[in-house]
Amino acid sequence: MDYFPEDLLGAHSKLIMDPVHGGIPLFPHEVAILDHPLFQRLRNICQNDILSLVFPGATHSRFLHSIGVMHVGERIFLSMVKSYLESRRYKAKVSTTQEQFFAIDYFNKVIRLACLLHDCGHSSFSHQFTKTSKIKDMMESSGLFQKLWAGIDTQDLYDATPTIIEHEHYSSRCAHQLLTDTGVQASGIELIDVLAIMETTSATTSAVFNKHAEYFWQFITGSKEVEWKTSTTIPQLVAELLSSIISGEVDADRADYMLRDGFHSSVTIGGFNLDHLLSNLRFGWDPQTPWLGLAITSKGLSALEDFVYSRNQMYRNVYGHKTALGFDWLLREAINEVLEENDISDYVEQCLTDLDEFRHLTDNYFWECFRHHARKHPDSYSYCIINRVKLKHIDTQYDLPPDQIERRKQALADQLKLDKTAVVSCTMNAKFSKIREDFDQMKVLVKDAITHKHRLKLIPEVSTFFNKFTDGTITHFYLKPKRLG
């Protein structure tokens, strides 16, 4: 792989102007991926399905979100590298070797690609598509994985054939196609290394990755020796570290969508100080465990607390908004409705097994299906979506057990003197934070006041703030529009 110090300094070939992050530079191989039809389809998939029916500005696409995640992923990685460079120069008086810079450059480009491609397998209306009952049945059909990967040996990517396919599996498949078609290996990046740090795969990193991992380990620890007795290898630890930047408790994906969704929804509750958070992130390592992951300084805990609190508020007030979830329910029913037509159902099934057709499975396809169906059937779910006919909200329950939902519907119907079928519900799983007593994916770097030495501690040992945030559910109840009977 050719190494250019200018790459780490931002000497890229193109610049995309983003309303959230400003100018985002691109490498030539990234431009080739963006220009590919399979990636361009993301322009026609909204980041938040039909949230714009409630927050009119939320029309931003998966395309720009993916580029934003790439940018934030690089910022997370390089901010930690910068902190180590400063420490080595001014405290340890140790210079960084050429091989270590090669490793940093390689991992930076791998992270950027994995972040860019992390959501490239999303279909129409993002998460609502895979939550639709008829679509779930299609994606759980026997042999779907084999059809999707027909002609490609997946032994290096998956230990076992997945029985249930999620959108992350499509992201891995699309990423494989995009990286192959654009010849990313000509840029010195091994395709398998990008897929290895993405979700769902169990790929083993390449010899190139493993070589760089050894030098990167020396950069972080200042040692060539391995001090643990387990079977865990340095490349495994480095791969897990890079994966946590893409998909972890504090990752590039969440950082971008919170800022982006808050910005386009014109709400302030999704805001947090990204610069403050990044300036306090460090590479944390414990040679005895062994553990290698993200660490945050004690003074940066307030930024992490702000990040978690902002995400909590976005779920409760934007993603879980009563009107928004009502439209999500109508959307899923409208998709089920048009899939009753054999030609539509057959085509969607074809799209789910053929990437040449999959690129046409965007929001636009279903909007046209809804319009066509609504003209013929004014008493349909499609009509409600096209004409923004809202469900009337009548109740909200938090953390209501699933077996109590039907009982609550009946109680509401009795109060309103209506048939139970007139009452519908929509539940959102609100995953606010995984930081609990035994959470060790991220740790706090604490400085001893007497010895001035740093040591790692579990976050709950330092802060009780996160105890108040637990995963839960938000269930809204509605009345069907009269036109639906």
Automatic annotation (TrEMBL):
Q: InterPro entries, per this entry?
A: dGTPase-like, HD/PDEase_dom, HD_domain
Q: Which residues form the HD/PDEase domain?
A: 58-267
Its source organism is: Alkalimarinus alittae
Protein's name in the database = HD domain-containing protein
The family database entries (SUPFAM superfamilies) matched by this protein are listed as: HD-domain/PDEase-like
Spell out the PANTHER family in the cross-references: DEOXYNUCLEOSIDE TRIPHOSPHATE TRIPHOSPHOHYDROLASE, DEOXYNUCLEOSIDE TRIPHOSPHATE TRIPHOSPHOHYDROLASE SAMHD1
State the SMART domains in the record. Answer: HDc
